[in-house]
Design brief:
single chain, about 15% helix, UDP N-Acetylglucosamine Acyltransferase, domain 1, alpha/beta, about 210 residues, 8-stranded mixed beta sheet, Rossmann fold
Length: about 210
């Protein structure tokens, strides 16, 4: 499968590294290159892989599937939907060291980083980032365009709504609900449900702000 990466920044290079690791492990994956709308990056290389043009050039580039590699959840969602309108297929980047238990599913365009673990019967949505060494325990549900940051631990039967960010090293106790477009601060310990659009921080996590989610 020939995969094209949309965006060549830090997150794009992480996606490239995962795909290269898949290739080295014997999977039939070829990284075609990147596309990026930053003019300063054109025809440069990142991790030895060339930036082939702007996003508008996608139809002219030979590829089987692509991954939108933007770290910001909102920008990633918008670019995913923009490219989806042209009928493209989306790949999944899954590092060989990541573990998906029985019955776990991962949506199109998602990235599962090194040493991430997804428990049995858990459902991961579209365009999700499961970052380095995070764990999503059994029967959990992760919405579309969520970022689960490095070192996060979600207990069993946790639900995370679309567009939410769970920050570095945070812990969410079993059975809780994290609302859409909410933010859980780095190192927080979540002991109760988090409303949509809320930002919570601390141990235990407490509300510090709300934003509109409509």
């Amino acid at each position: 499968m020939k995969v094209l990466i949309v965006a060549a920044g830090g997150h794009g290079q992480v996606v490239a590294d995962i795909l290269l690791a898949q290739q080295a492990a014997g999977e039939r994956v070829v990284v075609v290159g990147y596309v990026d709308d930053d003019d300063s990056l054109q025809q440069k290389r990142r991790l030895g892989i060339e930036i082939l043009g702007r996003v508008a050039a996608i139809p002219a580039i030979d590829h089987d599937a692509l991954i939108v590699a933007l770290g910001d959840n909102g920008k990633r969602a918008r670019m995913h939907e923009r490219t989806a309108r042209s009928g493209v297929r989306f790949a999944i980047a899954r590092h060989p060291s990541a573990i998906l238990a029985s019955g776990a599913t991962v949506g199109e365009g998602s990235m599962v980083c090194a040493r991430a673990v997804v428990g049995c019967e858990s459902r991961i949505g579209r365009g999700v980032i499961l970052n380095t060494a995070c764990t999503v325990d059994h029967h959990s549900s992760i919405g579309d365009f969520v970022h689960i940051a490095p070192g996060v631990h979600l207990g069993g039967d946790v639900s995370v709504g679309d567009g939410a960010l769970v920050g570095l090293g945070a812990v969410v106790l079993p059975g809780l609900r994290i609302g859409s477009r909410s933010v859980v601060g780095a190192g927080a310990v979540v002991t109760r449900d988090v409303p949509a659009g809320a930002t919570v921080v601390g141990v235990p996590a407490n509300l510090v702000s709300m934003r509109a989610t409509g």
